[in-house]
């Protein structure tokens, strides 16, 4: 992958992590893949995994409805906090406080529109400790979920989520192999991620016929994308994660362009 390494080498003042696992050939690519970073919204995928696990265990049905709330409990001291609509990519739930929504629809909004409100509601439902425990049971290293979104008291105490490119790609490869919860549940999670509405990175420069089930995440100087690429019907998919740190927060196009180019280079190798 000289082309990939050469492309990444030009970003001397940035950290760029890449991890790829090809289900067709078992080939792996790891570049700076193990440094733990702030995962931004990529941590919402582990929450989805635990939602499906608990549904499979009979704790609830995905079609059960729960109240839409905006009051949450800090893991640091038990204090209450709420989310601000201006910091959320998905805003429709804020106009529906007090109404009910299905667990499935909240999970979908958490992934395809990156709803922070849905994320915190689901973490209150399934438990952050349980999310993290399931990751460990799956053997996924380098991904830790400790809390929901905007728990500022916990943030100031250093109680934060983290992820590495290697860990997230391992997670995505298990989903692609239909080994998370069940084959049916894994396919449902893939179908949700195929509906992703933010497609500026991994899918942006790929052919239209290549399907991508993925989850983006960005905050401050962190821009990420992790997912499963289906190059064609006649080929198994590959899992890919691109994590970045250091791109300016006021010019996100730079980060998206970089990740899209990396994705394109990888695709040429695996198509």
Task: Identify the notable features of this structure and list them briefly.
271 residues, alpha+beta, Beta-lactamase, five-stranded antiparallel sheet, two-stranded antiparallel sheet, 11 strands, 37% helix
What radius of gyration results from the CA coordinates? 18 Å
> Could you tell me the mean pLDDT?
97
CATH architecture type of the largest domain: 3-Layer(aba) Sandwich
**Which fold name corresponds to the CATH topology of the largest domain?**
Beta-lactamase
Number-wise, the strands total 11
Residue share in β-strands: 15-25%
| Overall outline | globular
CATH C-level category of the largest domain: Alpha Beta
Question: Widest sheet: strand order?
Answer: 2-1-11-10-9
Helices and strands, in order, run as HEEHEEEEHHHEHEHHEEEH
Number of domains: 2
Summing up helix and strand content along with how strands pair, one would put the structural category as alpha+beta
Biggest beta sheet attributes = 5 strands, antiparallel
Task: Describe what you observe in this structure.
This protein is of the alpha+beta class and 271 residues long. The protein has two domains: 145 residues, DD-peptidase/beta-lactamase superfamily (Beta-lactamase, 3-Layer(aba) Sandwich), CATH 3.40.710; 115 residues, Beta-lactamase. It is built from nine helices and eleven strands. The protein has a five-stranded antiparallel beta sheet. It has a two-stranded antiparallel ribbon with strand order 3-6. Strands 4-5 form a two-stranded antiparallel sheet. The model has no long low-confidence stretch (mean pLDDT 97).
């Amino acid at each position: 992958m000289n082309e990939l390494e050469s492309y990444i080498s030009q970003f001397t003042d940035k950290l760029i992590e890449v991890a790829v696992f090809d289900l067709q050939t078992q080939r792996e690519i790891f570049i700076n893949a193990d440094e733990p970073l702030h995962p931004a919204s990529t941590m919402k995928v582990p929450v989805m995994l635990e939602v499906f696990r608990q549904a499979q265990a009979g704790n609830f049905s995905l079609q059960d409805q729960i109240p839409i709330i905006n009051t949450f409990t800090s893991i640091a001291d038990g204090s209450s906090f709420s989310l601000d609509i201006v910091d959320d990519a998905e805003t429709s739930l804020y106009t529906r406080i007090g109404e009910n929504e299905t667990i499935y629809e909240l999970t979908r909004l958490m992934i395809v529109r990156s709803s922070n409100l849905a994320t915190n509601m689901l973490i209150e439902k399934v438990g952050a400790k349980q999310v993290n425990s399931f990751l460990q049971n799956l053997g996924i290293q380098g991904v830790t979920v400790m809390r929901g979104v905007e728990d500022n008291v916990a943030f100031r105490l250093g109680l934060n989520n983290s992820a590495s490119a290697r860990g997230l790609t391992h997670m995505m490869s298990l989903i692609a192999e239909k080994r998370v919860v069940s084959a049916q549940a894994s396919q449902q999670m893939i179908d949700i991620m195929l509906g992703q509405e933010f497609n500026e990175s991994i899918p942006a420069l790929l052919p239209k016929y290549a399907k991508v089930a993925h989850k983006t995440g960005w905050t401050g100087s962190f821009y990420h994308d992790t997912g499963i690429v289906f190059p064609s019907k006649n080929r198994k998919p590959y899992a890919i994660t691109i994590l970045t740190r250091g791109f300016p927060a006021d010019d996100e196009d730079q980060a998206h362009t970089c990740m899209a180019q990396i994705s394109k280079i990888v695709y040429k190798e695996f198509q």
